[in-house]
């Protein structure tokens, strides 16, 4: 099935949403409805002050959400803007409804007034704080954070067995092979990325401090987990290293992202679960069922993390093979229903084992793509022919996905992210690694053989637009405030694929949809803020800002973001996104360079963007070995 057909199949919901009243859409569209209600109340107040006491009375008298929704819809329908500020407010509301307004602030962090214990009464996982962490003794907070991680982050890689982890965490045995203080604190540090409560911050509202206390404790445990040759390696320690990779890659903290990943790979090699010439036999006569399933999850999860990271930045993956069997794709899973806690309790099938197996299949193709694009492929085939073969394998994988993965079935977010992962691989494959410009269309001698009737650049652009459709569905169904960090990579890659074309149109609806989604994701981490700042400069360098200003269809936030430099406010509300962005490459001071010539820091293309993304996120891969302790061969 061609990529173009897939695009048309993932986008039908757009037309339906376009017909929804603004207020109805605002309240029904996922976990950012509180922010939209805030905007709606503001609009109603500015239009007619008499609406305010009516609303207050409705709330005091315990009116249902549907009743409030109906009242707001009537008020908005009757509104006749008579002043510029009212027109701007309604235009911004319309932009939010269409998914093309941008945000420059994270969702307002929630104080304990709402009481985190209300959430925890519905938390799907109940676990104790002690003896696992010294940061807090609040079981409710720890249960909340563990639930957030297992709901929103865990399914994408699933590199440990969640059921085994929860069981052993509840037992409180710190010597367990499946749970340790190191693992728990690393998990809690990651979980804070998904929380908007003050308890997730060291400094409330400062995204740079999210989970900092838990991270500091995990790092203290890390120091005691440097293994000498012949030392024992606990499975939980390997898993904790992968969690720290995730945490560091969001902050760019000391360029330790690659370091944690490669230490985890070395630990996997020492355990014999990856890169081993002979398979490792797992027998119930020698180990428990918990150990068998945990080893399988960790081995194949490590393979997935490795292929995702290295293919993202077009470096050769390091895990060549996995030495244990995969999880049975048709096996039962105790947590095979998924509900978007704390947004709602409405559950849907997780299909976790089925997803995990399909993700592993995709990882084999990703591994081969990473080797091919980094010139480590030794198959002897011509590069163009090799790309064709890899694209055909990708297409076959996508066409054979189970029907229950179809976006039209409104699946859980990790199933949407799996398709986004497929499309990022398509874009990477369709780009020239050594120059990294999109492959030119027919008529250019450098163009490889066309695939299934489309040129490579058309395929890449189609995948970018499909990512936009999937992103909008993810946003409408679940909101972007809880999106896995891979969504940031996928959205950013799609944006720069569109931006890099000679025919780039700043008013392209897919481009504006992706921009809006990226602005929400970017608010949640220091890495996201840095990437969004560089994206803003890159778009402004295309000199299409005047077209934005003249459009009646573009909401005010987009106009401010992309306004020409001659009209730009100094400073604008996104300038703080450059805070802490000291250098991107080499020893050049970013701040000094920015003051001298801001536009010179605009990203010239996909290649340069990924180089900067890599540097800001996981560091430089060729530097990680310098960080290994002297004389240590095992971790």
From TrEMBL:
Annotated GO biological process: DNA-templated transcription
Span list, region Disordered: 1-21
Lineage: superkingdom: Eukaryota
UniProtKB keywords: Nucleus, Transcription, Transcription regulation
Pfam families in the cross-refs: Fungal_trans
Residues annotated as domain Xylanolytic transcriptional activator regulatory: 147-397
Any one Gene Ontology molecular-function term assigned to this protein's record: zinc ion binding
InterPro entries xref list: Notoamide_regulator, XnlR_reg_dom
Protein's UniProt name: Pathway-specific regulatory protein
Organism: Aspergillus kawachii
């Amino acid at each position: 099935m061609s990529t173009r057909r897939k695009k048309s199949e993932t986008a039908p919901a757009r037309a339906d949403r376009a017909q929804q009243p603004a207020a109805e859409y605002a309240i029904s569209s996922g976990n950012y409805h509180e922010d939209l209600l805030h905007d709606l109340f503001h609009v109603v107040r500015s239009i007619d002050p008499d609406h305010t006491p009516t609303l207050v009375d409705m709330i005091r008298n315990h009116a249902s959400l549907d009743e409030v929704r109906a009242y707001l819809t009537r008020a908005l329908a009757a509104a006749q803007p008579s002043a510029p500020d009212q027109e701007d407010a309604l235009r911004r509301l319309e932009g939010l409804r269409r998914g093309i307004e941008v945000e420059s602030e994270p969702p307002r962090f929630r104080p304990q007034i709402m009481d985190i214990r209300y959430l925890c009464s519905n938390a799907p996982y109940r676990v104790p704080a002690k003896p696992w962490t010294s940061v807090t003794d609040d079981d409710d907070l720890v249960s909340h954070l563990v639930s957030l991680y297992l709901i929103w982050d865990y399914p994408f890689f699933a590199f440990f067995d969640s059921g085994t982890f929860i069981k052993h965490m509840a037992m409180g045995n710190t010597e367990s092979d499946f749970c340790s203080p190191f693992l728990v604190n690393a998990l809690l540090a990651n979980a804070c990325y998904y929380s908007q409560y003050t308890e997730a911050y060291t400094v409330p509202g400062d995204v740079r401090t999210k989970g900092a206390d838990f991270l500091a404790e995990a790092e203290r445990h890390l120091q005691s987990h440097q293994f000498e040759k012949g030392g024992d390696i606990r499975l939980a320690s390997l898993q904790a290293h992968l969690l720290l990779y995730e945490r560091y890659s969001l902050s760019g903290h000391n360029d330790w992202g690659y370091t944690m990943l490669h230490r985890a790979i070395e630990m996997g090699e020492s355990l014999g679960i990856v890169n081993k010439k002979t398979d490792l036999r797992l027998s119930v006569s020698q180990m428990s069922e918990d150990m068998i399933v945990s080893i399988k999850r960790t081995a194949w999860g490590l393979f997935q993390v490795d292929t995702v990271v290295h293919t993202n930045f077009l470096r050769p993956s390091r895990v060549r093979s996995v030495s244990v069997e995969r999880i049975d794709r048709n096996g039962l899973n105790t947590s095979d229903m998924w509900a978007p806690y704390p947004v709602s309790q409405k559950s849907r099938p997780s299909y976790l084992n089925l997803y995990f197996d399909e993700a592993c299949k995709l990882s084999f193709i990703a591994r081969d793509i990473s080797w091919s694009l980094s010139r480590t492929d030794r198959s002897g085939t011509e590069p163009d022919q090799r790309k064709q073969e890899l694209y055909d394998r990708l297409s076959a994988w996508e066409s054979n996905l189970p029907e229950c993965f179809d976006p039209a079935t409104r699946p859980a977010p990790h199933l949407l992210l799996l398709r986004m992962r497929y499309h990022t691989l398509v874009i990477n494959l369709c780009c020239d690694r050594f120059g990294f410009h999109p492959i030119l269309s027919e008529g250019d001698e450098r163009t490889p053989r066309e695939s299934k009737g489309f040129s490579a650049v058309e395929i890449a652009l189609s995948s970018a637009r499909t990512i936009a459709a999937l992103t909008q569905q993810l946003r409408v169904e679940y909101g972007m405030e809880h999106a896995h960090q891979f969504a940031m990579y996928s959205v950013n890659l799609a944006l720069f694929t569109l931006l890099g074309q000679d025919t780039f149109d700043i008013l392209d609806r897919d481009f504006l949809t992706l921009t809006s989604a990226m602005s929400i994701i970017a608010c949640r981490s220091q890495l996201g803020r840095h990437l969004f700042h560089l994206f803003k400069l890159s778009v402004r360098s295309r000199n299409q800002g005047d077209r934005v200003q003249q459009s009646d269809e573009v909401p005010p936030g987009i106009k401010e973001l992309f306004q020409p430099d001659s009209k730009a406010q100094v400073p604008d509300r996104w300038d703080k996104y450059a805070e802490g962005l000291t250098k991107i490459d080499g020893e050049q001071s970013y701040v000094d360079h920015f003051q001298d010539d801001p536009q010179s820091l605009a990203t010239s293309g996909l290649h340069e963007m990924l180089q900067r993304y890599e540097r800001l996120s996981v560091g430089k891969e060729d530097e990680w070995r310098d960080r290994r302790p002297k004389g240590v061969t095992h971790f």
